[in-house]
């Protein structure tokens, strides 16, 4: 979880490979209207996100019934994470924390992504870091992706 540009897709894909479980890029489940709204520079509201979050919860239920999985998802608000946790036992979050300037640089350097760098402010406005009662780990997203994956994989293995 984390803001756009924090490395969710990179770290999530690597972690899924390491754990040998399926990977989902949550952005792939956004309806076309959500993508268009964000591409136009308008942040999504909770009503926009609800169908997307429900689709993600369905994926979690399926993954939980199988061998598990890794999902790269912003999950910026604790309410969103609560909904996702209700979808399956063992849902655990890796918060990739990054400063705004670094995230903006990363997003500005992307080619072909629907999320413009000017939307970063809305991401930080919505971001609610992991609460102490939420299962997960917060790491510095500026670290080398492999070291982040190492820490995350160790934490996940400790849960088993």
CATH superfamily: P-loop containing nucleotide triphosphate hydrolases
Residue fraction in strands: 5-15%
The level of helicity is: 40-55%
Poorly predicted ranges = none
- Overall geometry: globular
- Which CATH architecture is right? 3-Layer(aba) Sandwich
Spatial order of strands in the largest sheet: 1-2
Taking all residues together, what is the mean pLDDT?
89
* Largest sheet properties: 2 strands, parallel
Structural class: mainly alpha
Q: What is the oligomeric state here?
A: single chain
The Cα radius of gyration reads 15 Å
In N-to-C order, the SSE pattern is: HEHHEHEHHEH
CATH topology, what is it called?
Rossmann fold
Give the total of domains: 1
Say how many strands there are.
Answer: 4
- What's the end-to-end separation, in Å? 21 Å
Q: Report the total helices.
A: 7
Give the class-level CATH name. Alpha Beta
Short description:
The protein has 160 residues and is mainly α. It has helices spanning 8-19, 32-39, 46-65, 78-86, 100-108, 120-126, 145-159, and strands at 23-25, 70-72, 93-97, 136-140. It catalyses: D-gluconate + ATP = 6-phospho-D-gluconate + ADP + H(+).
Ordered list of secondary-structure elements with their pairings:
Elements: H1 8-19, E1 23-25, H2 32-39, H3 46-65, E2 70-72, H4 78-86, E3 93-97, H5 100-108, H6 120-126, E4 136-140, H7 145-159
Parallel strand pairs: 1-2, 3-4
Helix pairs in contact: 1-7, 3-4
């Amino acid at each position: 979880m984390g803001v756009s540009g924090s490395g969710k897709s990179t770290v999530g894909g690597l972690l899924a490979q390491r754990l040998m479980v399926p990977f989902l890029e949550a952005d792939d489940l956004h309806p076309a209207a959500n993508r268009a709204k964000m591409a136009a520079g308008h942040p999504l509201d909770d009503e926009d996100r609800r169908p997307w979050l429900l689709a993600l919860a369905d994926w979690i239920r399926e993954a939980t019934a199988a061998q598990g999985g890794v999902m790269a998802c912003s999950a910026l608000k604790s309410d969103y994470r609560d909904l996702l946790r209700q979808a399956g036992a063992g849902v655990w979050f890796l918060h990739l924390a990054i400063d705004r300037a670094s995230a903006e640089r990363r997003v500005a350097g992307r080619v072909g992504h629907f999320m413009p760098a000017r939307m970063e402010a809305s991401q930080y406005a919505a971001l609610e870091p992991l609460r102490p009662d939420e299962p997960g780990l917060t790491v510095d997203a500026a670290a080398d992706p492999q070291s982040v994956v190492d820490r995350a994989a160790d934490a996940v293995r400790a849960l088993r």
